Amino acid sequence: MSKRVKHFYEFGPFRLDLGEQTLLREGRPVALRPKVFDILRVLVENHGHLVDKEELMRSVWTEQFVEEGNLNKNVSMLRQVLGDGKNGHVFIETVPKRGYRFVADVREVNGGEETDLAETNLSSHLVAESLATEATNTRNYGLAVTEPEPTFQQSQKTTELTDAWTGADNTKGRSTSSRLLFLALAALLLAALLYVAFIREKRVSPTPTIASIVVLPLENLSGDPSQEYFADGMTDALIGDLAKIGELRVISRTSSIHYKGTKKSLPDIARELNVDAVVEGTVQRSGDRVRIRVQLIHAATDAHLWVETYERDVRNVLELQSEIAQAIARKVQIKTTPAEQARLTPRPPVNLSAFDDYLQGRYLYYNKRTEENLLKALEYFQSAIRKDQNYALAYVGLADSYNALGSVQIGSLPPLEARQHAEEAAARALELDAGLAEAHVALGYVHHFNWNWAAAEQEFKLAIELNPNYANAHTTYAGFLMSKGRVEESIAASNRARDLDPFSLSISAHRGFLLENARRYDEAIEQLRRVIAMDQNNYQAHWFLGHTYAANGQFDEAVAASEKAVSLSARTPGALGVLGLVYGLAGRKGEAIKVLNELLALNKSRYVTPAALANVYIGLGDKDQAFAWLEKACQERSNYVAYLKVFPIVDPLRSDPRFDELLRRTGLDSELR
Question: Degrees (nearest 5) of the Cα angle 598, 604, 605?
């Protein structure tokens, strides 16, 4: 009887015996496919360390090329056998886009001697019984094992073989030892049949219920960092198409991009975003061709539900995005209405150069929301339109840029002029694609600040109907509701936007502004400070925080926040106006007057929003001049005027009859629902 050195690993209820090439659960064998066993061996041997996907595939499939989807499928099988994630047990961690790490506590045993089981007098029928029992147990993990009934001829041949081997005489009956040997052989045959059936049987598991999803940033595999905007654009487009499905909650791009390059596990990301599934993948662009590989993963178990690779001409990427979105919808078994199916219909091909211009305008410049970057974004959107006059999204980009440039915060153009350009661009986009939610939001913004209240609400509601997961539609509608004094509805809409895009600094900062107008100052300050904690240089948050502190009577804090906003904005008139306001309210009249003189001088050489000057005069307590500049703001339909009904900063003017007249002219003296 031979001896061998014991070498095995123990973790949880399992023992991995490398000598016997077996996995035992509480002493009983667990049947594993060979490749699944090899994956477990490599992960356990490297426990606590990341094993790169490529390295793992090379270690397991040593003599053949295999796609990553094969690896994912086998890891998923292994997880189910181990019961990963059940009863608090976590064995395998996924490191997105990199590989896997075995994270369970492992005890390695390497020493001592153990009798070779193959040479012991252990009854063979007991081994067969154990294997058969384990095969039965595997059904509990979703493995269907077929047990074929032996035919009469098979039974007869087995009997003849046994008799020939033992030398038994059929006419004299079998001896007791012959019968025992026959039973052992029959048990071994059954065990062999069960094992073959097991390794051939595919694991069948129902698709888990999925009602919410996040599309993680697609990885740029082009080898060219300058192509990052293209990968980001593909991510955003896929999110946009999925977001059109009302039954599916889809996390917005701004929150998705938060996880770009993250080392967090997929279950951790899913818990933070409260989603059921994750879509991840890669984009590789080469000349006029694009290759996209996407996979759908059940977040809680890290089980890979679907993987597919697509290759198309770049001109057809819009069609490709719709195709992928529909494939995911089918896989998660989400019901789509006929209207949603129509909205997912592939759009016409787009000019490649125009598509490039749009992506750069949107993702390299517009999203930075400064005057300089917005003007640059305009150039790219205009270039895209020159190259493809039927490209609807380029017109939306144009409309969004003009709307931002005409705001008090940026203040580059007179509002009526800016919104006229925005309205023309949004209308053209809707001529090309009436179902484009983004265009309806841009048009609703124009109507809102032009005091066309009914038309604005209609556009916002239509945008949300067309794309229920479009966070920007909810936050823009929330601003409209607040300006009308519909405070609770506004906060609810803002909460919905936050749920869809929890890491959007713009949405979070705007929520702080809404809380200020709801007179919930402590909450507003806390909200804005959270934004600043994530981005110390967020101009919008510092700007809102300055006048929120002032409304709450915290003038020293208001000055500090407003000075920071002025610095970050390169002394934009809107930021200077708030600084002059808080200087005046803090009793620092001399400094307020210096700001006033700076604004008056600027007004001779460039456009200065009247709201900035009205703010300084409010801080100085000069009501006549404040009303004079508010009159100018009304004439040019400044965004500022739309919030007169609720904005705390104008409280010193409310008792004056001239204020009631302003509200009447804007339509804010009634609800006009």
Answer: 95
For residue range 161-215, what is the model confidence (pLDDT) as tens digits? 334 333 444 444 445 555 666 566 666 666 655 554 444 444 444 557 788 999 9
Domain ranges of the chain: 3-117, 123-200, 212-348
For residue 23, the tally of other CB atoms under 10 A from its CB is 25
Tell which phi-psi region holds residue 206, choosing left (phi > 0), alpha (psi between -120 and 50) or beta: beta
- DSSP codes of every residue in 108-154: EEEEEEEE-GGGS---HHHHHHHHHHHHHHHGGGT-----PPPPHHH
Q: In 3D, which of 433, 435, 455 has the Cα closest to residue 444?
A: 455
Q: Are 517 and 615 in contact, with CB atoms under 8 Å apart?
A: no
Question: 591-634, pLDDT tens digit by residue?
Answer: 999 999 999 999 999 999 999 999 999 999 999 999 999 999 99
- Beta carbons of 252 and 469 less than 8 angstroms apart: yes
Rg of the chain, C-alpha, whole Å: 34
As a whole number of angstroms, the distance between CA 345 and CA 311 comes to: 19
Top-level class of domain 212-348 = alpha beta
Largest alpha-carbon pair distance within the chain? 126
- What is the pTM for the complete model shown? 0.64
Q: What is the C-alpha to C-alpha distance for residues 135 and 352, in angstroms, rounded to an integer?
A: 56
For 3-117, CATH number? 1.10.10.10
